Amino acid sequence: MPSINKNIDNVGVGFASFFTPPPPDVIRFTVGQPDFVTPEVIRNEAIKSLENGETFYTRQPGSESLCESVATYLKNSFNINTSMDRILIAPGCKQTILYSLMGLGNPGEEVMLLSPSWATYDAQIKLLGMTPIHVPVKRDNYHPDFEAMEAAVSDKTTMILINSPNNPTGAVYTPDELERIIKFAEKNDLWILSDEIYATMTWVDWPHISPSTLPGGFERTIVIGGWSKSWAMTGWRLGFVTGPENAMNALFKCHANAATHVPTFLMPAAELALSCHDEVATMTDAFRKRREKVMEELTGIKGINVPTPEGAFYVLMDVTKTGMDDMTFAKRALEEARVHLIPGSLMEKGEGLVRISYATSIENIEEGCKRLKNWLNNL
Ligand SMILES: Cc1ncc(COP(=O)(O)O)c(C=O)c1O
């Protein structure tokens, strides 16, 4: 019999089983995607492109005009210095992470993750024959633990993959922490893969900062982002990546041989989205209000501890004081409170934690938290 990739058995499928819609009486706090339909003006632009017959092969990294617009957007929004010829548009941020690992890593090398971290990182690293090193973040605020990072790094480590604002923890790393991450990367000669997909969603006093904009960061940072979260375009499968020239040349090769380019008729709509500031602001405001609501509702619930969610649309609750492990907690919350949650054990270093996605209506947040409160207070 022909064999299969020997790494496949070690690779999980993340939260896949939790994405099946639960029965209608259940409040769903599992799905990490905006509940908004993509703004109409963006949808109409894609329809127009199709009607204009934009159905042919085109420039592989993305149309010149789209790549120019992404470079301008990154400069104006986050002070990221890049240029059109160092931008790559790929089918989702997920795929740009895969290209970064493929293009810059080698089998046998180690990639450091600050965990719990988005489950796809672990899977992609293993698929490529590399080893994820899961360094736990601090348990009280989910920020990097530099001592633990120093202890875990080895000669085989060639990359550190960070994600701020973070899924699943909701942490937003401070400028000081990002500077320390760069120093750590310089000392150990690491690439920094910086997944900034939630860049527009910060709820704290410090802004989102890309390590590529800090001293020493530019030469070794790959900036990863995309349209899924900020523009409510998850189903469009559009992501972007930029970095120094030598790295981007490697990523261009991966993309040219894996996908050629993203659908031609989606490119004008992706470009238009970048100027839809009002639409993005409306959705961001909604998330800000939902985050306040979820914090208000979760405060004082017996047995759960909730470090302040600083960004993205997630709350990661510590449920250890309930006496239940996270799997049991999520199972019983579904059966007894009719609330669907993600147990942290689906991610390395996530034991004892349970994730709420508050990308849902205020009414759902109120009702879901009320159910959790009643359930836990009556146990
Ligand atoms: C941290 C993080 N990165 C990347 C992605 C995926 O982005 P995309 O839809 O662009 O592939 C997600 C989606 O949940 C995410 O949480």
Keywords:
12 strands; 11 helices; 3-stranded antiparallel beta sheet; 379 residues; Aspartate Aminotransferase, domain 2; alpha/beta; 7-stranded mixed beta sheet; 2 domains; binds pyridoxal-5'-phosphate; Aspartate Aminotransferase, domain 1; globular
Helix count equals 11
Give the name of the CATH superfamily of the largest domain. Type I PLP-dependent aspartate aminotransferase-like (Major domain)
**Can you name the CATH architecture of the largest domain?**
3-Layer(aba) Sandwich
Bound molecules: pyridoxal-5'-phosphate
Calculate the terminal CA-CA distance, rounded to whole Å. Answer: 53 Å
CATH topology of the largest domain: Aspartate Aminotransferase, domain 2
Structure description:
Helix 1 (40-51) runs antiparallel to helix 8 (267-273), helix 2 (64-78) runs parallel beside helix 8 and helix 9 runs parallel beside helix 11. The radius of gyration is 21 Å and the shape is globular. Helices cover 37% and strands 14% of the residues. It has eleven helices and twelve strands. The protein folds into two domains: 8-38 and 277-374, Alpha-Beta Complex (Aspartate Aminotransferase, domain 1); 40-273, 3-Layer(aba) Sandwich (Aspartate Aminotransferase, domain 2). The protein is an alpha/beta fold and 379 residues long. The protein starts with 26 loop residues before the first strand and ends with a helix. The strands form three sheets. Strands 2-8-7-6-5-3-4 form a seven-stranded mixed β-sheet, sandwiched between helices. A three-stranded antiparallel β-sheet has the order 9-12-11. Bound molecules: pyridoxal-5'-phosphate (PLP). Pyridoxal-5'-phosphate is lined by residues 32, 92-94, 118, 163, 167, 195, 197, 226, 228, 234, 239. Pyridoxal-5'-phosphate (PLP) is lined by residues 32, 92-94, 118, 163, 167, 195, 197, 226, 228, 234, 239.
